[in-house]
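Quick entry, no commentary yet.
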Amino acid sequence: MPRRAYFPNPDNKPSGFSPATRAGNQVFVSGQVSVDAEGGLVGEGDALAQSVQCLDNVEKALNAAGATRADVTKITAFLVNSDDYPAYAQARLDFFGNPGPASSTVFISGLVSPSYLVEIEATAVI
């Protein structure tokens, strides 16, 4: 089955990967960090603000591939600080409601930039 890449912002395409890839009725969203459309950090030092921005970026990638948040079946979050889990969990609940999709959270030592506290990836089925 062929795959197709989708870019929420065609004027700002990352090199080497796709924000979203669709194969048939499945959409895979690459890990999204807390950056705005211009690539600027949103929510420095604030895990809640970063989680909200990450989820907003997930939604934009989903939409580019023809999916919505209602199609999400699984998310995985990577958090640098375990103390930030409640803020992330609140953003996830606000975004998906209850019950949300299947979810995993992994605590890690760092992300691509030391300013990033959260990264979120998603899988959806349309």
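second:
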Amino acid sequence: MMMDETLTKKIGDAALIAVLVIDDAGDAAVLAKALLRGGVSVIELTLRTPAALEALSNIKTEVPEIVAGIGTILTPEQLRQAKERGAAFGVAPGYNPSVLDAAKKLDLPYAPGVSTASEIEAAYEKGCKTLKFFPSESLGGLSYLKNVNAPYAHLGIRYIPLGGIGIGNMKDYLENEAVLALGGSWLAPRNLINEKNWDKISKNCEEAMKIVRELRGK
């Protein structure tokens, strides 16, 4: 299924989604706790490593208060695996009709990735009103998003921009009404995870959440 109102509100209230590349599933729970200490409660575990699904299981068991989704979903089979492991939602880098159809059949909240007007229209026609906007900065950033969304603003479509976003430009994005939340790996980069630098990850989150609170009063 598409993102329902309850999940959309959770993500919108959180404002940030930590995009994670985990090489060792044993790091997952302590990482999730470090994110929570910094105020970040929604994560996207990317299927870029073999450890992602096991990491999801570990987080679901040990840190259930984290809203944990799976990203980089490229096939219906990956979507099924994410559902079986208890993912709260699925995210893809692009628009794939077969994956979208599978999400509906599996009843898993899902946000396809878009980068063009045609993809926005195709996703909306399928019932999607929460879309991943990727790769945001490479496409032209907030300026491009404003322009490409202009014909659809009245439809209530909301975007989760990812790609090139960080502490220096997140404020501008979050000030835009079409932006539901931001995703990014800068909160917990792969090198910091592998170094087990949990304190630095927590500090990154605290710094980002300070901006969120200033803008949205969270």
